[in-house]
Task: structure prediction
Amino acid sequence: MKKFAFLLSLLLPGVTSSYASIPPGDILILGKDSIHIPARPLVNLDAGTLGRLDHWLEHFRYEKNILYLVGGYRRIWQIIDGNMYLVGLMDYKHSDQILRETFCDDYKDGKVAAYWFTGTLWVPDGRLLRMDPFYNCIYEKEKMFELVNGKVHEQKNVTNYFPVFNGIRRMDRNAVKDTLVKLFRQSDLKKLMACGCLPAGYEICVNEKGKVEDVSFLSLAEKRKGDGDTCIREIRRILADLQFDIIKWHGRPDYELCDLGLFYDEEKNELILL
Result:
């Protein structure tokens, strides 16, 4: 089981803005739809062919808009009758010529069969739910294509979001933070302060069943401030009854990590999120 932990940067509110910073990926044409895909199916191509491709890309480099994708260019793929093809290069008006000179006899009818690609292609199909700092994403739904030498051997639809009866919605990535903060504010803040639980930073783990499975301090220094075990037990007690909806990654069980910094203002009797 792949543990794909998404850090909700609750200590840095500015980081939790929109997902507009996702870099555009390759394009996959499925029927009438053109979909951005995170995969780079060209990576398995042999070095000699990649060298020729680089040569012709450099030859026509004046056409490339280097602002849209760091370190490269976007490919256009298409799945037709169970076969995947490379059909073009974005932003190159001489795309056909580049592919013809690169792939020679393998370039037929305006496309190249992706004979080099063996692997799993995940195609977004629904709302983006989570994204980590490396642009790995979880979507509400996905289409999965298992390919061998460019031929589709298996295809299925995958669901990654599962509502739970009376569960707390996690469709919005701020839902976990908002729920935790609300629950802490309803707790006995003076008691938490007295036993050394505030101020402190906590890492809270929501497991594959949508339950809070683990709570730990963010640093050893914070653990040593007071009775660390007592604090952890108290925080777990406060969060024990929470039930969130379930999020999976590529249809497999997954968990989510949440970093939470808390400070208690005694004068105002108010919990402050750091």
